[in-house]
Amino acid sequence: MKYNFDEIIDRKHTSCMNTDGFRQYIFHADETLKFPYTDDEFIRMWIADMEFAAPDCITDAIRQRLDRKIFGYTRIFGDEYYNTFLSWTKKLYDWTFPKENLYTSHGVIPALYELTGYICGPKDKVLIMTPSYAYFKYAAEHNEVEYVCSDLLNQKNDGYYEIDFEDFRGKAEDPAVKLFIFCNPHNPSGRIWSEEELHRVAEICFENGVMIISDEIHCDLIRTGCTHTPLAKLYPDSDQIITCMAPSKTFNTAGLQFSNIIIPNEKVRKCWLKWHNFDENPLSLAGALGAYQGGYDWLMELRKYLDANFAFVQDYLASHLLEAVFRIPEATYLGWVDIGAYVEEGENLPLLFAEGAGVLLEGGNMFVQNSDTYIRLNVACPRSVLEEGMRRICSLLTERRKQARKNCKTK
Ligand SMILES: Cc1ncc(COP(=O)(O)O)c(C/N=C2\CONC2=O)c1O
């Protein structure tokens, strides 16, 4: 491999959420919350950023911008950024769109908050599929509008979620539902929706006048052999599909807060043009250009490294946690594992693993609903870290199982 994904990088004192934000984000606690592990001892498998160095094409581009010495107000002018990003979507997805539809935002979440406000009125509702990335719910709450959940089906209880189209249609038919925030590919299940599923979702929304925001932030992070289809690619003439993509998930630059928002709808564009803050961080812009101009080979190697990490997780669970339900996700670097055979419904799973194994992870009701006994494992870390994390997780659950059996015998 040309890139060293095995490198252990010290992130202490970099103000990163991953090391310093978990008490507040996962446990809603302050620094006084103590665990039987020091912060350094934790294996961190929670927040969706990677433990890998961003590629040189990004850091070189940022260094070059630093050498220009002045960092004044910055916006995107000319065609360079559009042409660069369009080359990326053409190369990876054979998808292009007009320049006037491309905007940028200081992250996909800020865009979801902003767009929900432009699309929904006070009595309108936002439709999401669950389990869901919690910020889809927060986008509705931030705008003080209701959200409606359509639970995905896990019919074989094998973690392979499918859309409950009957339920989805029923909820989309509610005249108050004006917006569907679609996760494509899906966090946390890792599903890449098929073209058939994409068409069915879109047709139901079109029939019911529901605008779609297709959040595709995970689209570059797919398993070898899988293919992502941008929803808007299937409907080049539709103005009902807003697409969100970003270099941040792909290249581990979430802190640079730079994302791509493709808005084909004139009414929404008018609101965006009127109210959006178009200022950009010059270093973030430089990094995004560097990523899309030079990051393809790094991404291809990253995909192979993640493929191998997921294969390890699958093998390790098959031999150490036989009743866990896991399938390698088609996309994302997030493993979605049903440990219902080892825990009770409603257990605080993040607290269980933080206290009992020194592993930071997300799970259970952190994904709005329909996810109770699941844990989500970020496998975008050096293999040595992943191996220790899996060892601790499986050891905790098997020890608990042994203790439970012992307790039963002594009763
Ligand atoms: C579907 C989805 N949309 C948007 C974002 C965030 O976009 P940003 O504002 O950073 O551009 C994330 C990050 N997901 C995370 C971040 O930590 N844990 C997660 O599941 C995500 O999974």
TrEMBL record:
InterPro entries: Aminotransferase_I/II_large, Class-II_PLP-Dep_Aminotrans, PyrdxlP-dep_Trfase, PyrdxlP-dep_Trfase_major, PyrdxlP-dep_Trfase_small. It comes from the Bacteria. The keyword Hydrolase does not apply. Keywords: Lyase, Pyridoxal phosphate. Its cofactor is pyridoxal 5'-phosphate. One of its GO terms (molecular function) is cysteine-S-conjugate beta-lyase activity. The keyword Transmembrane does not apply. It is an enzyme of class 4 (lyase). Its EC number is 4.4.1.13. Residues 52-393 form the Aminotransferase class I/classII large domain. Belongs to the class-II pyridoxal-phosphate-dependent aminotransferase family. MalY/PatB cystathionine beta-lyase subfamily. This is cysteine-S-conjugate beta-lyase.
